[in-house]
Amino acid sequence: MAINAEAVVIGGGVMGCSILYNLAFRGVKNAVLLERELLGSGSTGRSSGAVRMHYSNEVHARMAWQSLRIFQNFDEIVGGECGFTETGYLVFSGEDDVEAFHSNVAMQQSAGIQTSIISRSDAQEIAPQFYLGDCPAIAYEPHSGHADSSATAAAYATRARQLGASIRLQTPATGIEVSGGKVTGIKIGEEVIETSAAVVATGPWSRRFLLQHGIDLPLEATRHEVIHLKRPVDLLPRHPGGGDIANMVYFRPEGADLTLVGNGNIEQSVDDPEVFAQRPTQSFIQEVWSRIARRIPLMENAEFSTGYAGLYTTTPDSHPVIDKVDGVEGLYICTGFSGHGFKLSPMVGVLVSELVLDGNATSIDISTLRMSRFKEGKLNMPAYGFRVLV
Ligand SMILES: Cc1cc2nc3c(=O)[nH]c(=O)nc-3n(C[C@H](O)[C@H](O)[C@H](O)COP(=O)(O)OP(=O)(O)OC[C@H]3O[C@@H](n4cnc5c(N)ncnc54)[C@H](O)[C@@H]3O)c2cc1C
What we know:
By secondary structure, the chain is of the alpha/beta class. The chain contains 10 helices and 22 strands. It has helices at residues 14-25, 58-72, 74-77, 98-110, 120-126, 149-162, 206-211, 282-295, 345-358, 373-376; strands at 2-4, 8-10, 32-34, 50-51, 85-86, 89-92, 116-118, 138-141, 145-146, 166-168, 175-179, 182-188, 191-194, 198-200, 220-230, 241-244, 249-254, 258-263, 268-270, 303-314, 321-324, 331-335. A hairpin with a 3-residue loop joins strand 17 (249-254) and strand 18. Helix 1 packs across helix 9 and helix 2 (58-72) packs across helix 9. The protein is globular, with a radius of gyration of 21 Å.
C-alpha cells in the first residue's frame, strides 16, 4: 500500500520531533514521523538536559543562544511544557585552557550571549559551597539551566500532531527508495510511504542506517554514564549548574535534593545501539563522585541515589551533521550531536525545516556542519578535550 506524505522524518528523538513540528508549523500538511520504538527512547530519554551557551565555536554558540529563547518561552512559542529551569551556569577553565577560554567567552559575547568572566569572589557568592582555589578562569551564564528532554520531545510531537502531522510508533523505517537521483519513498517492511523528502534523524542508529544506503559517515555510538547523588540539603540546599573542564565533570541540580553528575572524558564505543549496559559501573561512580567532590567538597557526604547510561552519537570533531545529501534530491541528514544536542534542538528543527522547504538554512550559517567536511579534512576541532563542552 502506498501512502503519500509531503515529508517523512525518520527517528522520534528530540531532533525528529522538533523537525516534525517545524515542518508542520511551516505549513507541511501531512508530514509523517516514524519511530522504531517510542518517542525519546534513544539518547533523548537519557539526556542530562543541560542548557548552556559555552562553546568554542560560533555555530553551536548561536544555535544554543537562539534555542534558549525558545526554551524560556516554550509555551508561548511552541506550546506545552519543556521543563526549563533557570539555575545559572558556571564554567571552570583548566590550567591549560585559559587562553582559549577567554577567547571563547569573547566570541560568545560577540554573538550576543549573556556570559562573562567573573572573579573568584563573585563566583563564591554565586556558589558559596564550591572550592575555587584551583580556578584560573571562571565564566558565568546567569540565564542558563536545564530542561526536560523527554517532555520537550513529547511537546513538539503533540504540537506537530495538532498541526496535522502524524507519528507512527514502533515502526522502523527499513529503507529509502530513490529513483532518478530523487527520494521517492520510505519503506516500512512491505509498505511504502511515497514522499519526495526524507530526514534521517536516527541518533546512534544512524551509521548503520546510512551505510545501508551507501552513505559512509564517521559516526560512532558511545556509552556515557550519569549518576544522581542525594546531597546534604541542610548544608547544600541548592547550587547552579556547571561544566568543570579542570575536573572533567558536569553537574546540575535535579529536583529538590539531587545533584546529577556526568563526565567529559570517560566513554566506551558500542557496536550495536540495541545492546549496551544500562547501569553505571562501580569504577565510574567512584571516579565521578571524587571529581565532583573536588569542586563541591560537601558532596563527599552525599548519598548515591541512582545512575544509568545512555548513548551519544559521536563524530571525530564532536559536531553534528546537518545537511542535504548531494546527488540524492530530497534526502537530509541530521545526526551526530554527541553529548550536547538537546540544548540545540529547538533551533535544529527550525534550521532543518529551512533546508527542506527553502533549500538552505538561513537563520544561522551551518555550513561548518556539512557532511563533506570529513572527506575535505576540514574538521571543526573543539578547544577542550571535554566531549560535551566542544
Ligand atoms: C547520558 C547523556 C547525557 C546527555 N546530556 C546532555 C545535556 O546535558 N545537554 C545536551 O544538550 N545534550 C545532552 N545529551 C545529548 C542529547 O541528549 C542528544 O544529542 C540528543 O538527544 C540527540 O537527539 P536525536 O533525536 O538526534 O537522537 P535520539 O534521541 O537517539 O533519537 C533517534 C531516534 O531514532 C529512532 N530510530 C533509529 N533508527 C530508526 C529507524 N530505522 N526507523 C525509525 N526510527 C529509528 C530511535 O529509536 C531513536 O528514538 C546527552 C546524551 C546522553 C546520552
